[in-house]
Amino acid sequence: MSDLFGAPLSVINVGLAQFAEPIRAAGANVVDVEWAPPAHDEDIARALARLVNRADIEAANQTAFGRYLAAQPTLKGVGIARDVLDGLGERMILHSGPPITWDEMCAPVRGAIAGACVYEGWAETPAEAETLAGSGEISFAPCHHFGAVGPMAGIISPSMPLWIIEDPVHDHTTFSNLNEGLGKVLRFGANSPDVIAHLEWMRDVLAPALVATLETLGDLELKPIMAQALHMGDEVHNRNGAASALLIKRLIPAALDAGLDAKTLSDVVTFINSNDHFFLNLSMAACKSMLDAAHGVPGSSLVTAMARNGVNFGIRVSGLGDTWFEAPASIIDGLFFPGYSTADANPDLGDSSITETCGIGAFAMAASPAIVQFVGGTASDALANSRRMGHITFGRNTAFTLPALDFMATPAGIDIRKVVDTGIAPVINTGIAHREAGIGQVGAGITHAPLTCFSAAVAALAETFVD
Amino acid sequence: MSDLFGAPLSVINVGLAQFAEPIRAAGANVVDVEWAPPAHDEDIARALARLVNRADIEAANQTAFGRYLAAQPTLKGVGIARDVLDGLGERMILHSGPPITWDEMCAPVRGAIAGACVYEGWAETPAEAETLAGSGEISFAPCHHFGAVGPMAGIISPSMPLWIIEDPVHDHTTFSNLNEGLGKVLRFGANSPDVIAHLEWMRDVLAPALVATLETLGDLELKPIMAQALHMGDEVHNRNGAASALLIKRLIPAALDAGLDAKTLSDVVTFINSNDHFFLNLSMAACKSMLDAAHGVPGSSLVTAMARNGVNFGIRVSGLGDTWFEAPASIIDGLFFPGYSTADANPDLGDSSITETCGIGAFAMAASPAIVQFVGGTASDALANSRRMGHITFGRNTAFTLPALDFMATPAGIDIRKVVDTGIAPVINTGIAHREAGIGQVGAGITHAPLTCFSAAVAALAETFVD
Known about the structure:
Two copies of one chain form a homodimer. The first copy, chain A, is an alpha+beta fold. Helix content of chain A is about 40%, strand content about 20%. The interface of A and B includes residues 232, 252 and 405 of A.
């Protein structure tokens, strides 16, 4: 100790800033680190204490994580929602995020639902559709309750075409809607006649062409495409250019052999080619497939879904059944398109955070330094995000490696205990929707899952352990 | 000073190791840095001294570099070598690298030339072709002497189809042969009947299909594709997967509209789709275009070509006309395919180092951390290569940015003075050919341009300044 105080001191002060003052006054060099004890709520701290260092939870997580790793999401085809979704009501519309009533919904989701009602022929105009939707005659449910996911508003109505993804390892099927492209699209709440006409083209031309193409192509495993895309600058959430191109390379030869007429072939190829996010919905359904495999393991503290409905953010946990643990959806810190600002932004929206739940998206941001031009920050921030998420995850997914971190496998298996213990919130890359329906995307950025979802889940998990 | 020696010393010893010994013996902590004074040859040092800090050379380099930046290589079409190469002899074969005689050539180049003779109908068998080639009846010249480039053996014979690249800014045309794909291919010296049949298919089916497609597509600027590929994990020399996919996305809709018959369309798409290096030859011809724009500026010390014929490595310098400055080609430090080792490797071969000359390839390796799985090293090495090349280049090419270095523009415009002054040799990513003809690629790795090419060029440039 006498040696220590004989030399000039460099001090790191963690937490309360006033501890640093006398040291600084005495002439030492002090760096302040902002820090507060995590789990500051006493009840949550007690609940967490009951859940740490338990062999049974470790074993449950090992089981859940093993199932997640073993899943092999495989693109099987395209089908119409009413034909492929078990229990979908004839007048039911699915939306992103946790459950929500019409009255509570944000404007982009309402706009998208109104558009879906017009598309289904249940109403003549969006205004008529809004009256219908508020009348109680239409029922609403989360996509997640039907094994499905959708970006932004995430709308699935009975006659929409869906991607069908099977995991043969766990004999489980997941779904997503098809990406409409950029510009004025239903998922941002647009519902004008051109938006509806495009949805009809997707149902009447694109979907049958994809059915024929996929029948010619046969099964297509999605993890290898996602893994290769991670080596090509995608994080497969907000950058899908490489994955979409790799998909196109697989689809085109099959499309040529599928006997499509020349105009259909040309229109379909032009449409897919023009949309760098075409793969996004497949990425999401593949992530849903891997995470559903991990769901339902008693005692497991691993997160199997994170989703937002534009009002609330919800998570599901493997060992906690179908319960959603919710908190208000965050506002996103991002880069806005010219003319827009945070004041225009809808709170966090969409099922696409299933990618981060799965260890890609912002968790794999080290693979995608170029994305900082779109979501903000620097290349170092991108690396730091992937590294930091390693503190709150159960393991690493060796199927998905990050070249810039010397092929480190991506961190995956968010553990609610680690989130609450460290106070590190899961990071999410996301598009930002305008808070009014139909204006569309106004930017993109980085946000974090609200910590209170995780502390509520910790409390609930602790209650399941009565010993 | 008394303060300095009062505290424990940490010493960095640069150069002669024996200087460190007494310090280490006295108990200090010493790190040795290997270093020798560059330009140790006295005549070269004098020549270099005459070339530094000259306003006229700076101005010449500014002119040359400005032309390099302004070039806009544009894919215009595909033509047959004898129709598009000015002055190509009827029995002439072009090869990669600086000039070389048949007797001096390495086996893969001889094998490829023999294959080209059979392909041209000048000989029935490769053996007969080798006799013919050695007889003096066939003339040989570097691709570079005809504004062309070719990977590995780089063979161009009169009836081969070539990419035609125009730079409208400087009204200049460059060329490359078409990539044959992987496996048994002419560019590695293979010349069996299936190799020849594939070349015939490329001439008779692929080339006309590309002509029709490019007529439908119109002009295609190549720099934007290369720039986008750098954001997708390519360095556009040994990783071309993204650039090839982006090219395919541009070609397919045009191919669909070009009225090709269904079988041709399917065969051509399947062929292009199966070759992640399909873009390489376009990348090379685009680089040749940019560097030709910079060539021929009196007094400029910038390198406008680096090329290897498998025996010798040669460079050309903007201010030094058509002279090649040569040194023996290096052996490559790389990763070998199973069953092969350095003993199997041909020395450095091919015109593809035109990419590094242009600031991409290994110079842009920071864009492509995933390439270290192919050429060896770590992600940090990839970043370090791009950073280090900044010490020997005139400027940066803002058309080509490196996301992992926070979008730093790639270093470009190799200055022979800086290479000789620093002793830092230009780094090159490269495939490794088997030293016997026809076995093909046996690995890939990293090598460096031989420094003596640059010191010879410095001596020659100094002679042009008589003041």
